[in-house]
């Protein structure tokens, strides 16, 4: 049997203990699902694909943010104990479900969206896949907004207005997108208070990203781009 402690309630909640049968190839999401289906149907949590595509099942497992559908119990509970909590740095709605709005508000503050004046009447943009800017953008485009890096970031924990690794990583891909016509607006956004210059390069985002991305490298690139724009008088 597994000894499982799961966070229950809102911000002022507490951990509740459960005993869950142990199975081969069991994931942490399987454990949470067992509790909800067989022990306490009032347990709230999120999941969708169950195969590591959507990222909605992200939780803190023994103090580490993870996708629970891809995390096997044998990897994280050698002593048959699990402590499962909601993602750090986000408001708790109930139990293991967090409010993702602050995460996406910061995504928009970072201007993490494509800006162009082209219309459907214009020809398709031609971007060489081997161009330097395309290669820089390619390194960060696989982000699926799971917020694991956001939960792992200590700067977000003590500086709530910091945009966070995911939003800044997205801005970096757009700064390097040759089709985006307002590189200056993206740089203005990330140069503001709480932007890329707030990053301490601790690289928790790199360590914990389930997609193997390196937001810290993109943030370093933003710092160089912002510095260059400042020296040229563009910011």
UniProtKB/TrEMBL annotation:
Cofactor binding remark: Binds 1 [4Fe-4S] cluster.
Group of enzyme by EC: oxidoreductase
Cofactor(s), names only, from the UniProt record: [4Fe-4S] cluster; [3Fe-4S] cluster; [2Fe-2S] cluster
Enzyme Commission code: 1.3.5.1
Residues of the 4Fe-4S ferredoxin-type domain: 133-163
Catalytic reactions on record: a quinone + succinate = fumarate + a quinol
NCBIfam families listed in its UniProt record: dhsB
Record-given protein name: Succinate dehydrogenase iron-sulfur subunit
Organism: Acidihalobacter prosperus
Lineage summary: Bacteria, Pseudomonadati, Pseudomonadota, Gammaproteobacteria, Chromatiales
């Amino acid at each position: 049997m597994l000894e499982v402690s799961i966070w229950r309630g809102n911000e002022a909640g507490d951990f509740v203990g459960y005993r869950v049968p142990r199975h081969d190839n069991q994931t942490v999401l399987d454990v949470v699902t067992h509790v909800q289906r067989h022990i306490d149907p009032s347990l709230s949590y999120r999941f969708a694909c169950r195969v590591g595509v959507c990222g909605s099942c992200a939780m803190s497992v023994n103090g580490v943010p993870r996708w629970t559908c891809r995390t096997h119990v044998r990897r994280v509970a050698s002593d048959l104990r699990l402590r499962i909590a909601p993602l750090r740095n986000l408001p708790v709605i109930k139990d293991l479900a967090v409010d993702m709005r602050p995460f996406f508000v910061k995504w928009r503050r970072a201007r993490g969206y494509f800006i162009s004046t082209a219309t459907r009447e214009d020809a398709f943009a031609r971007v060489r896949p081997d161009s330097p800017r395309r290669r820089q953008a390619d390194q960060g485009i696989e982000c699926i907004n799971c917020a694991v890096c956001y939960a792992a970031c200590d700067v977000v924990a003590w500086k709530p207005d910091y945009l966070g690794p995911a939003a800044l990583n997205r801005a970096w891909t757009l700064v390097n997108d040759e089709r985006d016509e307002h590189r200056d607006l993206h740089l203005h956004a990330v140069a503001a208070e709480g932007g890329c210059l707030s990053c301490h390069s601790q690289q928790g985002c790199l360590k914990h990203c389930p997609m193997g991305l390196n937001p810290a490298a993109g943030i370093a690139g933003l710092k160089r781009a912002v510095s260059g724009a400042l020296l040229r008088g563009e910011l």
